[in-house]
Specification:
330 residues, mainly alpha
């Protein structure tokens, strides 16, 4: 991370030793300018230097700003595909007060922990996210006063003009990761969408599978099967759910689940057919020959699966005004 910050410092036009000549408010102002132009790497050294400089200051406004900077750095490093550093900042954010965006933070923490192979903490983060955690403020904290009404100490090194400029640029930036940095108590955090819940349950199930916690993976996989709109995600969850049931030696449950799905269009998903092969092979290995034979007979030929997928694709192409495509059979 230190090497990355050095590179970011060069990209931003400021050498590391020059940060000492920039005020605390100036560091956040410069960072906000880079965020507004979506030059995220260039914002990093200003943000990390702000955290280092203000680490021991416990004034309410500074404490809130430090938290906003930690969340911002977590989002930036996730965007830069550095899940280890991202998860470090997100753990600091969720473990400190005030924590105004816990749902957003725990969702991103779940992702970065999974991507960095930290599966046990990933499970804990996903389970916390699925409780829909509420924002937590500082004790006896009230909504931020108007900038013009703040005392010099409450300004935390800013002038009213600087604060207003940062807030104006934040509003103009628009995109979530490009939003400016503010200590203001935000409006109520929205609940997760169904797509986000599917993502959290998928990641929770996968992390449990990586740990061999097959029983714990069943419920989140079932949630994905029931609620995912994307056919590839639903098919993957079906395959993984069947594999988990087989790993638990719950062969009858696996067979019953597959038979139920076979009466839906899910049978045309290649992953479902892979699950059929896996389940049939396992049942053959444990001498459950009747069940194995039934499952083997349910496996669809490749041409039939391909024909169905091409038909679905042609429906989408027709709606988009595109010509049909034909399947090449051999």
């Amino acid at each position: 991370a230190s090497m990355l910050c050095l590179m970011c410092g060069r990209a931003s036009g400021a050498a590391p030793e020059e940060f000492a000549d920039i005020s605390a408010s100036g560091l956040l102002y410069e960072a906000s300018k880079h965020l507004a132009t979506e030059n995220y790497p260039a914002a990093v050294p200003y943000l990390t230097n702000y955290l280092e400089r203000m680490e021991t200051i416990e004034e309410v406004r500074v404490v809130a700003l430090r938290q906003a900077v930690r969340l911002k750095l977590g989002k930036i490093f996730a965007h830069m595909e550095d899940p280890f550093t991202a998860s470090d900042y997100l753990k600091q954010y969720t473990g400190s007060l005030p924590c105004y965006r816990p749902r957003e933070a725990y969702k991103l923490l779940t992702l970065t922990l999974y991507e960095s192979g930290q599966f046990e903490p990933c499970v804990a983060a996903a389970e916390t996210a699925l409780t829909r955690p509420l924002p937590r403020g500082l004790p006896n904290q009230e909504k931020k006063a108007d900038v013009d009404d703040l005392s010099k100490n409450e300004m935390a090194g800013f002038t009213a003009r600087q604060l207003k400029r940062i807030e104006e640029e934040a509003e103009e930036a628009g995109e979530d990761i490009s939003e400016g940095i503010s200590e203001e108590v935000p409006d109520a955090e929205p609940d997760y969408t169904m797509e986000e819940l599917v993502f959290l349950n998928t990641t929770l199930a996968e992390a449990n599978s990586k740990l061999g916690n097959w029983e714990a993976s069943l419920e989140p996989y079932e949630f994905v099967v029931e609620n995912a709109e994307a056919s590839d995600r639903k098919g993957f969850a079906i395959m993984q759910l069947v594999n988990a049931l087989i790993a638990l030696e719950r062969f009858d449950d696996a067979k019953d689940f597959i038979v139920k799905l076979y009466h839906t269009n899910a049978r045309y998903d290649i992953r479902v057919n892979m699950a059929l092969i896996s389940a049939a092979s396992k049942m053959f290995d444990v001498a459950r020959y009747d069940s194995a034979l039934m499952l083997y007979r349910m496996i669809l030929p490749r041409d039939e699966i391909a024909a169905y997928q091409v038909a679905k694709m042609n429906e989408l192409r027709r709606d988009a005004g595109l010509p049909r495509v034909e399947i090449q059979t051999s």
